[in-house]
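Assemble and predict.
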Amino acid sequence: MSTAEENGVKETVKRFILSSIAIADLDDDDNLFESAIVNSLFAVQLMTFIEKTFAIEVEMDDLDIENFKSLNATTAFVMRKNGRAGD
Amino acid sequence: MQHLLTDQQRAKHTDFKNFVTLNVEPFAEQWDREQRIPDHVISMLAKSGYLGSSLPPDYGGQGWDIVTFGLLNEALGKGSSSLTGVLTVQSMVSMALLKWGTEEQKARWLPPLAKGEIIGAFALTEPGAGSAIQALTTEFTQSSIDDSLILNGKKQWITCGQHAGIFLVFGKLGQRSIACLVPAATSGLEVEAIHGLMGFRAAGLAKLTFKNVKVRSANLVGKPGFALSHVAPVGLQYGRISTACSGLGLLRGCFEESIAYAAVRKIAEKNVGEFGMIRSLIARMGTDLEAGSFLCHNACRSEDDHVPEAFEKTLTAKYFTSRAAVRAASDAVQIRGASGCHESSAVSRYYRDAKIMEIIEGTTQIHEEILGKIFVGQAGRSGT
């Protein structure tokens, strides 16, 4: 796995999340959906962002909260969809 | 705003407006009075490819961009809000299915939806759950006999429910939200026409009652737990784009009716349009029309660009045009005076239809709540 690439994905997703919701900082494993910090549009906005930014498509089989619950989870999901996990 | 369109988009817009002039405007009052759009009119929409405008050609759709879809809704919205409602719900069901359907579901349902051989309806609202969709009580349970689901519950104010051959029904499976395709011909599903509406009188609204309706579990769209967070928002996004642009069309209708009347109607020796008070009403209408055009275009472009901001830009456009349409319709009736109060006048229908725009696909107050939160949040994030 390319750590630099993974870190790049994580940083990009983090910047989007911090620009979308009113929090000062976000730890890698903070649970986005349990902490009630997201608004009702955030789930689809996050999905749209990662589809657009990383040229992937979130499909029906990907609908699993484990894929999006945190910064680390979302990063791992993007890496898997791009066939980068375990490189 | 025309300068922002491509040559192809401009040409399509002209086609759409010609279709409306010929096939919609002369009959819209009659449909409104009869509270029904004739089947042959929906067939005309289908033959023109309008019911599958945004679906990919692979499924028999036109593959038009969302800006073109918006122009179609704007053109039809000027002619008949009720007729535009068919487009609204067809796109809501089709696009939710395109995004979250299984390959089997897409192969089975998208081609007939694209060709308009079947009409889809978005069965979300319930007697006790409108804007508060988390309060859904429609219940799916697992059959004890096989792997099918048993559906019980009621849906209300379902646009095109009278015409639909397939419903995308939202409910709960235990504590999880689910969305499921339910053919209209399914045993135990009763469809009751709703008459006597103030506006959208011909939009074919219906009340649905599900009594032990058996549905294949293969008809589930998306996974359990994601119907309200992911499936419904995709449909509602297209519903709001359609409604925003339809509201813009209604606003254009009010504007064009008003300037035409103001130019010829005389009071003593002066045209109505020579009075400052009338000019004020028309100035506001024309400015709202221009602003609404940009907001709708911006929302459609954002959706074409597939950017996260598309959701709030669409909320903004729908919020603006629906409220502006209500103001414009009220002023258009005022300008016309008594003749604007008669059922033979388009502005009379506009006045009644406009109010509905502020309620469907999220009320004005829900939009204010969401947009206010977004805007205040932006200030907080920028540290101002």
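Chain B has three domains: 2-119, 121-224, 228-375.
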